[in-house]
């Protein structure tokens, strides 16, 4: 029975147990049957309590997908279609443009000439009462010359309002719309989608189409966008263009919050291209100045009831010419001339601590107001906790420096990509080991975030199917499939999380749990030692939620047992 239980997902298990209560007409008159069912439930509850305490509830999915080819969609496919009309705007996308959600940055590309930088917008379709003026730029990459990249800040917007906007001119103009978020409020509901490592394959298309139907209102993107760096020479730029047209079907209508991955670095000295993140930074702006960040690669925003912090896994320093990296042979090399693998090889705690990103994060965490935005979410590309053979322990330098801050400030969840599979952890931390003493292994920690890897968008590198065996105790669920996630915030106390697998083109919900808010949950349990002790024994919010649900059902069955016991004591029952 224990092994069968371990293979169940929590919400499936709850459905099974609740069937015990499904037909009271049968349960009520049958004392013996009720007692038997009650004993079964007690046994399940005892088993559940045992494995939660020991933290060995992790599951590795045995599902093996019938994988579509991990090859990029041909450029002449309709998903990359160029809009009709001379110099028509294309690759349209929006992101949040300020700290609090009352502005957007609208970006687009005109291929032939600069054209107009103006955005017309208003609250009625075809009626544009306002205008905003943007900027235009372009860049070269090898012999490729980009189109004219327009970026326009539209600010002073009203909360919870649908805006229509128009870009371009004449017959080539195009129209879109977006919805602003609710006012910053601790109980403001909001639904985020989480996507990572998307690429532009048929698997990518499946992920994107499923996400669009999810009802989510904004995307938290955890890095690795176009995978254009898998091409050479002019094809690099062409694949950035095709990806921009590919995601426009969603990104033009709702904000995508960007973070950079390793495939955005594009260090290609054989082509003469040695400036990190050149294409990415030219094409995908972020509101970093609004959060007092010195780089577009790390920043923070507030949206509805959430405070979202975006970190860069590949930014030990800002990429300036005069910054130097001292490598192991004491050779000083300008950082822009260091290959990414060199940066990764020699990255240590000292290259994370005291850097501009470290200084900024230290101050940003102090600015978080959990009374206004109780949900604290972190995005980073490299997973902090990962049990896949792919990229195992690559996040150690960041974990060693930032994890104690995540615990101290009670971060609710950390989303990452990089590993082309799905994995969710329990609430664990490893902040007490200092090389010479302390616990060497991650331990259950009620103040720690849940770590979730969603690097399963569908890119051409394929799935990372080799998980480490045995499954570590910090790992709750893992599966090598493509998909996307959603986080639906209900109020200040809880949110509902889902991971959806792309199963042969169909969206299949696989992993789900209720996420309790770290800050509000801690406040609500102050002074309740018995409840707090129970929470401390749980390895995750999933376990906490399931435990309380089981306890509720147990108490209801206990009442039924008392009723049927009373029935059995009546003269009529005794005579029978």
TrEMBL record:
Top-rank lineage group of the source organism: Eukaryota
The reaction(s) this protein catalyses: a phosphate monoester + H2O = an alcohol + phosphate
EC numbers on record: 3.1.3.2
Matches recorded under InterPro entries: Calcineurin-like_PHP (IPR004843), FN3_dom (IPR003961), Metallo-depent_PP-like (IPR029052), MPP_PAP (IPR041792), PAPs-like (IPR039331), PAPs_C (IPR025733), PAPs_N (IPR015914), Purple_acid_Pase-like_N (IPR008963)
Family matches, as PANTHER family: ACID PHOSPHATASE RELATED, BIFUNCTIONAL PURPLE ACID PHOSPHATASE 26
Similarity comment: Belongs to the metallophosphoesterase superfamily. Purple acid phosphatase family.
Protein name, entry field: Purple acid phosphatase
Provenance organism: Salix brachista
